[in-house]
Write a structure and sequence with these properties.
- By secondary structure, the protein is an alpha+beta fold.
- The chain has one domain (about 5-125).
- It is built from 3 helices and 5 strands; from the N terminus they run ααβββαββ.
- The chain has helices spanning about 5-25, 30-40, 90-100; strands at about 45-55, 60-70, 75-80, 105-110, 120-125.
- Strand 2 and strand 3 form a beta hairpin.
- The protein is globular, with a radius of gyration of 14 Å.
Length: about 130
């Protein structure tokens, strides 16, 4: 079983490139999410889909501050998009998701790009929120 976050991230990207090669851009985000989950589970990974992530601030507790598209092997958070262009806020949102979830590595994958490599952003969380 793969436990190294770099190997997990590489497997996620391999699945994304495989799916993009088969279907190209233009499908709904939810379809890409279905396909990614299917391919990752088929390869032996644990995939949490639309996983609620809590916000805890002093006495304030929110059970669902956001939902992560995919969390793979409890280690890599993956946000999927299907857009011609990504607004810079999507990157900032992923940074916030990583901080709240206390996950170190995140991938923003935009299947809407003609060349998938142009739609991938890798984010490393070096400043998790401490409880």
């Amino acid at each position: 079983m793969v436990t190294n976050e770099e190997e997990i991230a590489q497997a996620v990207l391999d699945c994304a490139f495989y799916i993009h090669k088969l279907y190209g851009p233009g499908l709904l985000e939810s379809i890409y999410e279905d396909l990614m989950e299917y391919e990752l589970v088929k390869r032996g990974f644990t995939v949490e889909r639309q996983k609620p992530v809590a916000l805890i601030h002093e006495e304030l507790r929110r059970k669902r501050a956001f939902r992560a598209d995919l969390i793979v092997n409890y280690t890599v958070l993956v946000e999927l998009k299907s857009r011609m262009e990504l607004h810079p806020d999507y990157y900032k949102i992923l940074v916030s998701y990583l901080r709240l979830s206390r996950i170190r590595l995140g991938l923003l994958i935009n299947f809407g790009m003609p060349l998938l490599r142009d739609g991938i952003r890798r984010v490393v969380n070096d400043h998790p929120i401490r409880m």
